[in-house]
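Morning run. Coffee first, then this:
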Amino acid sequence: MSDEIKIRVGGALKDDLAAFTRAWKRIEAGDQQQERILSFESWEGLASVLTGERYRLLRHLHAHPAKSVNALAQSLRRQYRRVHEDVSVLERAGLIDRSGGEVRTTADKLSAVVVL
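And here it is:
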């Protein structure tokens, strides 16, 4: 499990290129530490993925990994269909992993940078 996922909102193509160049130089220097970054073009893009309910789901799941989406829905006292949809979105974003027979978060910490 990665300890941290960095969330970046906004910025320009030159910012992305600079980040790529820094990562490339770190790798060339022998630093094999992987940095995980989740980028969004806008605040609305982030808000469409990380809603308040999904944030609560992530916090719960971090403390209590679940055997299944159904078990997660029951522990949250939410409808299975809604929880399944939330888990699918968060899994596509790389924030949840469903392999290995359980549902769990992929990081211990999220940090965000919002570029104005």
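The beta strands are 2-9, 36-40, 96-97, 104-105, 107-114. Good start to the day.
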